[in-house]
Specification:
Elements (H helix, E strand, L loop, with lengths): L7 H12 L2 H22 L4 H22 L3 H19 L30 H18 L11 H26 L17 E2 L8 E2 L3
Antiparallel strand pairs: 1-2
């Protein structure tokens, strides 16, 4: 003989109402949108040139906006500092040989080959730059961010910081003998040098 649990129907109704609650529906919708957005981003990974052209277009729109309103210089200064920080991450190896005792970059042809791995990959660099310009563009529509400031001073500070930072980065490259750029497949016939052939590694180092 079958027995009926008194609270079974109520429990089923509770679960169905919980699954159809506004919070659950919104959570599912945001998850689906984020998945779709990530899928579109993944499809743009191979198109490096087109991605950077789009980024340049966004940057020109922002520059035109700032020029027309003649303001928001503090936002531009903060954007420049953020771009400089991203650039340093893009040019730096993931494992800094100066502070890490692990595997280092090879400096001789007899060393074991280790591909150059950036601290900030190219795709994340592009995505962060583009997103930063979009956010800065939206901020220019709010007067609270238009702080009065003498912009030549900010420009001078940024140029000074850029020169000092890049000087330190170049000295680091010279010290550990690496240049984090290459174009296409490179082959060296000399047995005393070794060039990487991967375009995605963007790595070239000289040998003694």
């Amino acid at each position: 003989m079958d027995t009926v649990q008194p609270g079974g129907a109520l429990a089923g109704d509770g679960l169905s109402s919980l699954s159809s609650s506004p919070a659950t529906i919104f959570s599912r919708w945001t998850f689906a949108v984020s998945q779709r957005y990530q899928h579109l981003l993944d499809k743009t990974v191979p198109y490096i040139l087109y991605r950077w052209i789009a980024c340049l277009f966004v940057a020109l729109i922002y520059a035109l906006r700032v020029y027309l309103v003649q303001g928001f210089h503090i936002i531009t200064y903060g954007l420049g500092i953020y771009m400089l920080n991203l650039l340093i991450g893009f040019l730096s190896p993931q494992i800094d040989p100066e502070i890490n005792d692990g595997p280092s970059l090879p400096t001789r042809g007899t060393d074991e080959f280790r591909p150059f791995v950036r601290r900030l990959p190219e795709f994340k660099f592009w995505y962060s730059v583009t997103k930063a310009f979009c956010i800065a563009f939206l901020m220019t529509f709010f007067a609270v961010f238009d702080v009065p400031v003498f912009w030549p001073i900010l420009l001078f500070y940024w140029l000074l910081l850029f020169i000092l930072t890049m000087r330190r980065q170049i000295m680091h490259m010279v010290k550990y003998r690496y240049v984090p750029f290459s174009f296409g497949k490179q082959v060296c016939a000399n047995t005393q040098c070794l060039l990487t052939y991967s375009t995605y590694c963007f790595f070239f180092y000289k040998c003694e």
